[in-house]
């Protein structure tokens, strides 16, 4: 069954090509923007532990260094 692509809301004014513009801890929607992936795909990466994350209260955040390691 084909599911429609779910677009991530853009939280911050970050440049996906410029890691210097990223915050130290990125929210899931920010990770979607940087990786240019859907919300469901990023959630699958997090659930499969292919992308490291940390919980801050009810929010999942990805450290900038972990995102850079994932993309390289």
Walk me through the structure.
With 72 residues, the protein is α+β, with helices and mostly antiparallel strands. The chain has a domain at 25-71. The protein is built from three helices and three strands. The chain has a three-stranded antiparallel beta sheet. It is globular. It starts with 24 loop residues before the first strand and ends with a helix. Mean pLDDT is 86; it is low at 1-7.
Structural class: alpha+beta
- How many DSSP H or I helices? 3
Indicate the overall shape: globular
- What distance lies between the first and last C-alpha atoms, to the nearest angstrom? 32 Å
Parts with pLDDT < 50 across at least 5 consecutive residues: 1-7
Report the C-alpha radius of gyration, rounded.
Answer: 12 Å
With strands numbered from the N-terminus, the spatial order across the biggest sheet is 1-3-2
Number of strands: 3
What is the helix fraction of residues, given as a range? 25-40%
Mean pLDDT: 86
Largest sheet: 3 strands, antiparallel
Percent of sequence in beta strands: 15-25%
Series of H and E elements: EHHEEH
Topology:
Elements: E1 25-27, H1 28-35, H2 39-47, E2 54-56, E3 59-63, H3 64-71
Antiparallel strand pairs: 1-3, 2-3
Give me some keywords for this one.
72 residues; alpha+beta; 15% strand; globular
Quick structural overview:
The chain is 35% helix and 15% strand. It is built from 3 helices and 3 strands.
């Amino acid at each position: 069954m084909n599911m429609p692509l779910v677009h991530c809301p853009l939280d911050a004014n970050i440049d996906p090509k410029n890691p210097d513009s990223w915050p130290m801890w990125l929210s899931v929607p920010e990770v979607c923007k940087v990786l240019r992936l859907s919300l469901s795909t990023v959630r699958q990466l997090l659930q499969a532990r292919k992308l490291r994350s940390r919980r801050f209260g009810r929010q999942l955040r990805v450290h900038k260094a972990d995102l850079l390691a994932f993309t390289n």
